[in-house]
Prior knowledge:
The protein is 22% helix and 38% strand.
Amino acid sequence: MKGCDVSIEHVSKSFGTFRALEDANIRIQKGEFFSLLGPSGCGKTTLLRIIAGFESPDSGVVSFDGKNIIGIDPNMRQSNTVFQNYALFPHLSVYENIAFPLRIRKVPSREIDSKVMEYLHLVQLDAHLQKKPNQLSGGQKQRVAIARALINEPSVLLLDEPLSALDAKLRSNLLVELDTIHDKIGITFIYVTHDQSEALSVSDRIAVMNQGKVLQIGTPFEIYESPATEFVAKFIGETNLFDSRVVECVQHKSDEHMVTLDVPELGTQIKVTDYDETKPGQQVSFTVRPEKIRITLEEPQVNGKAINVFKGYVEEPVYSGFQSKFYVKLENGTVLKVFKQHQNYLEDGPEITWKDTVYVSWSANDGYIVEVINQ
């Protein structure tokens, strides 16, 4: 495996009275595609700039393979950066833009030609080597920037929202190409984005950040299915989130508990399984993802299973091609978001439309206690 381990330990940074980073701790493994994900102003770009050497932390250590790199000039680190705005030289051809880092190092011309052609091929721009940046599309410009950052063979590639200036379809295509490039060269990628779908699509692991703090680190599956905080639950995908009170917690299996929650917004008690033992009286945050909820015109048969069932009507249906989103107003007035995937038209059952009376249901296994609000 190429690349290097990156360790961020107790890193903090302020700009005047603004606290951009607060005690950030992250360990990124060699060859990993790791994303820093969060809204604007959460500290992710500041952290990337500290790793790159463009900013210095107020406190803390950043290490590559155990060596502290704080104080080392950016050009002396084992990293290169791909910027959002491409940062290409407008007067140079594609070939010369990619060759520039090697010319600075006074690499022999024959070796430069061989390396440039290798990286042109990697980013699929062989036919565009003599074009100037103003003759390229946004996606092609970003590929040139990626090739230029990689030609010095860094151990760590830092990507600062590299796709945000592109339109949605091009962004999606280039994201797949970027993942393919990572698989081919195998170095450590650290990718900054505010787009949850980008992070979920390509990352080995993700750090979710907000207000300068790292809230959760995990695989895309862990972040989505087991959010550590209410913010993570709401930021990653869409969800239904409720404040609840623990009524009962009974051991269900060797590593699982069946928890009864009183949910004021739902006007009743529900069942949810949990791996942690919560205590009666605790206030907790409970979530159920819209795609986990089943919507039917007929009342489902529970047959003793731990299924939560509610009756309501379709306040607003939203058709999106591959799925429909339903806003279902329950009998007590609370609105639930429900997603229904479209698979085979003939097997989809009767069409559910606006104002229909419906039943929504989900298994106790499909809900999740996000966090304990008080002890």
